[in-house]
Amino acid sequence: MDKRKALKILQDLLKIKSVNNHEAQVADYIKLLFDQYPAAQVTEVNYAPGRSNLVITLHGDQPGKTLGLAGHLDVVSPGDVTAWQHPPFAGEIDADNIYGRGASDMKGGLAALINVLLDLLAEKRSFAGTIRLFATVGEETGNYGAAQLTHQGFADELDALIVAEPSHLQVEYTHRGVIDYELAAEGKAAHSADPAAGNNAIDQLFRFYQALTALMAQKTAVDPVLGPLLHNVTQIAGGEQINSIPARARLYGNIRTTPLYPNQPLMAEIDALVAQLNQAPENKLTLTYHYPESPLPGNPQAPFVQLFHQVASNTLGQPVEIVGDGGATDASEFIRAAQKFPVVIFGPGNASGHQVDEYIAIKDYLAAITIYQQVILQFLR
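The line above is the sequence of Probable succinyl-diaminopimelate desuccinylase; the predicted structure tokens follow.
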């Protein structure tokens, strides 16, 4: 491993402002890194103007299994840049850390995967089978890059998948799913002194909230790793002024699902609840889902999970935990592929993602490169 080269690649990625958009600029930079290696098959999959996924495929010396590697190209907004001590798109570095928006979530993990592939190509390392790197758009706003690649069949041959999201260098094998929903209520405006002449849209939202809260209270099973089903109302808007009955109102909610309560059956129950409420003439509710992401089932005893655990523990010189993740990742889309495969979420990041002065520890970043390479070569022996 050329440490200076590895650090420069990450710094270069951090300098590209791919905030919920402009991922094609990151894809173009990555393509340039692989241009000198004819053995690397590089496929650009356009999602929208200025937004391109990248699929990089390496074939081994002989047939074998197919291992997927995944990282996303987008980052979240830096917010108030004056609050940052280290500019969010400068890739500043000190003795211990590299700073910048996306350093932890997850250009650090993506850069580590890129470095592994570049090293394999430069050293002409021997392996059996195929390595396929997915660099995706839109993970932070809906996983639609991973959904596009899965729909087009790029993940259909996978035997295992590594998602390089930040995991504190712990081995994650399962994670929650997400259901984001929007409920619109349409009523009738009236003077607040004569409420019977109108239909209060906010009251309709209250009826839904009470019914959904009762439904969620029935979901008492607790996943031993991920915990209980979670539901929160996170936004609400409606009304025009304090002395008028509101004609329109909206409620936004977030549900964090587990394998015990998968998305589709739960969404069907919520749809039925809204349909039942709409049978009353005073209710006119419209429910919309925004990019639901399925929970990731997994088995901590799966051979691929155990391989990762062994390699990571040996490399770091201490036992590494096998855990679950409360968030969701691109794996939610990739597992929709033609065949089932184990997934490990493992990355060098930390809890600084989405925060001011996001950073990644240099030692963790370099350790991840070593761990990824060893896992890949052992899995594809």
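Note on the example: The chain has a mean pLDDT of 96. The radius of gyration is 23 Å.
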